[in-house]
């Protein structure tokens, strides 16, 4: 099985690195300084599940040079998916399965529009990790998981074949979901509130969870997503927000979401594909999202500035 990993950031570097470490046929798609660095020095990962290095790393900057693969793991951030999706066509053959690993809910749709709906499944990953250098990743929390499944909920031979191929990789788990749509909403409920609340408070999880008012705001932000999901036909266990906040208590107190880190650094972020999606879906469904709408308005200027789109 030939596997292409699009992006060598925190997600692509970690999961692709684990698959390569296990001896699978993995080729990474990268560019610029990242490409030059991994060619010269390989990939270095510091992880609470065990440090490792992959050197040499099979890497290219050309989808045409890579050619058709059995699996394409799309590991760029959500705001890059729309632009990069059409460029991946040379790696997609008749039997290729494309798995998105982004935060948010819309990557599968964007990929299907560019590459064909038959090739794309639903997907997500779970990990707290960050890119600390051009070819350096640090994994600080959560047991790393790739979860994917057919968007219609069917259990097919192709997704089970991928799960079995990934199974030898250590430091990660692979799950085939029978309801990947719900799984993606649950992931949004875990990740987006920490990124949104953390960004407006400019504080990590440890501070937010320790202060009662901040903790309640985080919890209520999660509950807004649960209510919105229900209005759109997705049932999330109403006890999940309380359990999600409780799990944050077990992580390092300086834990932040990637969206928070990008916004704080003045970089383009997944803001529109996380907080923006909640506000937009709320308006479409007639579901009030007052917390998200307020946070969206508060963070929009910084987001537009980072993208060079701030008026005036």
Report on this structure:
The chain has 2 domains: 177 residues, NAD(P)-binding Rossmann-like Domain (Rossmann fold, 3-Layer(aba) Sandwich), CATH 3.40.50.720; 125 residues, Orthogonal Bundle (N-(1-d-carboxylethyl)-l-norvaline Dehydrogenase, domain 2), CATH 1.10.1040.10. It contains 13 helices and 10 strands. The termini are far apart. A 5-stranded parallel β-sheet has the order 5-2-1-6-7. α7 runs antiparallel to α9 and α7 crosses α13.
Summarize the helices and strands and which ones pair or pack.
Elements: E1 2-6, H1 10-21, E2 25-29, H2 32-41, E3 43-47, E4 52-54, E5 59-60, H3 63-66, E6 69-74, H4 78-84, E7 92-100, H5 107-115, E8 122-133, E9 136-149, H6 157-166, E10 173-176, H7 180-201, H8 205-210, H9 212-231, H10 240-248, H11 258-264, H12 275-285, H13 290-306
Helix pairs in contact: 7-9, 7-11, 7-13, 12-13
| β-strand amount | 15-25%
Number of domains: 2
Q: Mind telling me the CATH superfamily name of the largest domain?
A: NAD(P)-binding Rossmann-like Domain
What is the typical, i.e. mean, pLDDT?
96
The number of helical runs is: 13
Order of helices and strands: EHEHEEEHEHEHEEHEHHHHHHH
| Broad structural category | alpha/beta
**Overall form:** globular
Using the coordinates above, name the CATH class of the largest domain: Alpha Beta
List the uncertain runs: none
The neighbouring-strand order within the major sheet is: 5-2-1-6-7
> How would you describe the oligomerization state of the chains in this entry?
single chain
CATH third-level topology of the largest domain = Rossmann fold
Major beta sheet summary: 5 strands, parallel
